[in-house]
Write the structure tokens for this entry.
Amino acid sequence: MAKINIKKGASANSNTEKAKPAAMAFGRTNYLIILGGVALLIIGYLLMVGGGSDDPNVFNEEMFSTRRITVSPIVLLLGFVVVLYGIMHKGRSES
């Protein structure tokens, strides 16, 4: 048989203790860093847009511009690194 311990003066169903809210997985700083990384990702993808040709028989050199081949992938990589840092960032301890 299992023993049930009940303290004197307290009923078994009383919930007098206030439940503490669960701590958030990320703090405000984390969300701001992640938001900045997402903004960089959007900018990187916008830099990659364009350069196509409406006519499949015409070749457009603009498709291989420095902006699309070099700058955009660097901005995208930087955006992914910033998002990863925002996820891994541990804020200051609250003690």
Notes: Residues 28-53+62-88 form one domain. The chain has a mean pLDDT of 84. The chain is about 45% helix and 0% strand. The longest helix spans residues 66-88.
